[in-house]
């Protein structure tokens, strides 16, 4: 029989073993696992790209340009054997080549980066200015996946009721009553056939934007034909039409309907540099798949967007228009920024993956050679069929 004293001595020993040996082993294992996950994500991104190149049936190989740095390029000819070799070698050298590092703006610098639009037209000028950072902000929302699950199955509030409860004006417009907003933004959402997602997006994003004490409007631009979805063109249309709806100095936020920001400190206002709003997304294991990515959610000042002539109108179907947009910014020296991944993290609503457009690679390559002034805002042609001022958004029906 052990005495109580011996027993407690044994417990202490076990505890020491647990804390010093087992927990330490577990920590190392988890670190190893995370490293492995990162490699797998980078590898599968490359594999996808290579599969697409293969499917394009490049019997003659692929003519491309290799970036030697400082804007010097040399002509390269890649054949299928070489592509296969890259795929095999990639796991051994992925860390060096999958460069997704980025000089993120840390949380404490965010207030200095934001552009203030003081005194909007709708609140009285005698009201005090809202603080630079709203006191209503809260940190990362880790319950968001649960919230989405519940909203998916349960009936959402009726839009009219939701708008009345949150004091949202017709057309999805809102500003704080207690102070003058320092930021004024319009959120442009390109859209077709995703009503369930739109409902969830709206009921999530309105309270989010209100906690940030912004003056904002949500504009949904719906493509009303059966041609392939053209995200860039819809965003150009949204930009032009939204300028007719409000002040010419607003900040533009181009936003996909399936993305929900998780952290209130990701302020939906413009920064001095254009900003790619997501630095990490749950579907990419909270990483960025590649450094020049500019898709999903992007904020930009009116003059910067005009300077690059907006998006290209030529990317029919999924993929590439955001890469072209990223290149347009780069060639004008308008490098974009991102907030810290702890702040700029997002959840993507589940949906069936769109079929990527097969000719996006060719288009991207030819657009790089072309002067952007030949395709974009300046050449945009469209028909505005109708505008509806709905309780939660301004709805543009376009063709
Ligand atoms: C890229 C797409 C982007 C998309 C991101 C994230 C292309 C062009 C060929 C390189 N780009 O692969 O449009 O936003 O994935 O999903 O397909």
From TrEMBL:
- The record's EC number reads 2.4.1.-
Q: Name one Pfam family in it.
A: Glyco_transf_7C
Q: Which UniProt keywords apply?
A: Glycoprotein, Glycosyltransferase, Manganese, Membrane, Metal-binding, Signal-anchor, Transferase, Transmembrane, Transmembrane helix
- Where is the Galactosyltransferase C-terminal domain positioned along the sequence? 275-352
Query: GO CC annotations?
Result: Golgi apparatus; membrane
Catalytic class of the enzyme: transferase
Residue ranges of every copy of the Galactosyltransferase N-terminal domain listed in the record? 164-271
Q: Where in the cell is it found?
A: Membrane
Question: Which pathway does the protein contribute to?
Answer: Protein modification; protein glycosylation
Q: Which BP terms does GO give this entry? A: carbohydrate metabolic process; glycosphingolipid biosynthetic process
What cofactor(s) does the depicted protein rely on?
Answer: Mn(2+)
Predominant subcellular localization, coarse grouping: membrane
Q: Which GO terms describe its molecular function?
A: galactosyltransferase activity; metal ion binding; N-acetyl-beta-glucosaminyl-derivative 4-beta-N-acetylgalactosaminyltransferase activity
Topology relative to the membrane? Single-pass type II membrane protein
InterPro entries given in the database record: Galactosyl_T, Galactosyl_T_C, Galactosyl_T_N, Nucleotide-diphossugar_trans, Prefoldin
Q: Which domain of life is it from?
A: Eukaryota
* Function of the molecule: Catalyzes the transfer of galactose onto proteins or lipids.
Family of the protein in this entry:
Belongs to the glycosyltransferase 7 family.
- Protein name according to UniProt: Beta-1,4-N-acetylgalactosaminyltransferase
Species: Armadillidium nasatum
Q: What is the gene called? A: bre-4_1
